[in-house]
Amino acid sequence: MDESLLNKSVGEIMSKKLISADPSTTIFQIAKMMEQGVGAILVKKDSVPAGIITDRDFAIRIAANKYDWNTTVDKVASYPLKTIDIGESVLTAAKIMSTQKIRKVAVVDQNKIVGIITSTDVVNLIATTTK
Q1: Residue-level pLDDT at 58
Q2: What is the DSSP track for 22-62?
Q3: Which residues 6+ apart lie within 8 Å of 110 measured at CB?
Q4: Which of 42, 73, 81, 104 could be a cystine partner for 20, CB 3.0 to 4.6 Å?
Q5: In what order do the strands lie in the sheet with 83-85?
Q6: What domain range is 81 assigned to?
Q7: pTM of the model
Q8: Calpha distance 12→47 (Å, rounded)
Q9: How far apart are CA 21 and CA 7, in angstroms?
Q10: Residue 2 clears pLDDT 80, i.e. is over it
């Protein structure tokens, strides 16, 4: 495998499409948002992204604990939000995901969230460049 591809910056492969919700949003409302193919939603506190809820949270945390659909997202989201600088390498992002057992990391540029990188992004990068 070409090592240089893992040295690409996360900014080169991140998704810029960000969806966020207020902490008072219900998990039913979050599920309806995710129904459109969204895998993660940032949860804002005081208008600043502070946490994240993912499709995996629904499969594991919400279903296993039988949360009521009216439960607010702030009760089930993961805090604090894990971030990585836009200039960091894809390899660094992969190491963060691996060591922290997470699949999505918010990308920041000058303390502002500008995107998200996922484990799928990393796999797709490897798959498309090693054919």
Answers
A1: 85
A2: -TT-BHHHHHHHHTTT--EEEEEETTEEEEEEEHHHIIIII
A3: none
A4: 42
A5: 83-85, 104-109, 112-118
A6: 3-129
A7: 0.89
A8: 26
A9: 32
A10: no
